[in-house]
Structure prediction request, 318 residues.
Amino acid sequence: MGTRGAPSRRRPAGRRLRYLPAGSFPFLLLLLLLCIQLGGGQKKKENLLAEKVEQLMEWSSRRSIFRMNGDKFRKFIKAPPRNYSMIVMFTALQPQRQCSVCRQANEEYQILANSWRYSSAFCNKLFFSMVDYDEGTDVFQQLNMNSAPTFMHFPPKGRPKRADTFDLQRIGFAAEQLAKWIADRTDVHIRVFRPPNYSGTIALALLVSLVGGLLYLRRNNLEFIYNKTGWAMVSLSYIHGSSQAQFVAESHIILVLNAAITMGMVLLNEAATSKGDVGKRRIICLVGLGLVVFFFSFLLSIFRSKYHGYPYSDLDFE
Prediction:
């Protein structure tokens, strides 16, 4: 009879016991706490961003351009998180600063911001703000800025680059030029809508009405306009009929005519190069063109009267 050995202990099939190394439980607990903290930080960051965007949208619903001081600038522009672009005009609009360029640039900036605010493409990816020197001196010092007006773009991520500062000296500050610069920096295209300006039309209508009214009231005493003898006597009195001589009064007349033509050229150049309101520039252009055409034609007529046979003229005053 054989002997029976002691029964052996066998593990159940398919089961394996795994043991954690000693001291691993505190590490797992620390990892869990870290994940919870990171998740809470991300949630807090999202809530902060949502609050900032909501506040900016509320300000934009009231005004297309909202003013900022130092605290607001650091909170909404410099401090993260931020997923929107901010266009800021640094200016000095207080009367004691005597910055006429700032006022002109502000008018163009208002036109641009209003065009964006009432556009069908308006969204929370782009905002317009302003920092006045007297309200945010610390911001000017922080950015080492010593001139106004200045336009800057603050991107959603990172710091502004050199191209994020608008080249006002080279391009000017027209709303259309600002819109093109913004499209290059943000891919947001703004169609500029200018409010209608009827000042030039009203002024011209009043002038025509005034002249027409005077001519109508004096309709029975307008023979002097058609009196060629009278005009000839005036010409003979002050304009010498020969090219070999010239009256003193004639020299003064020629001087005045040349001055008027020069003034017209200056106004035309001002209308072409200035960056002000388009309606005012149009009026200046029309006035300058009228001065050049009228007085240059008068000068040619005098030249023809002295040099008989001169073939060129614009408006015939003879």
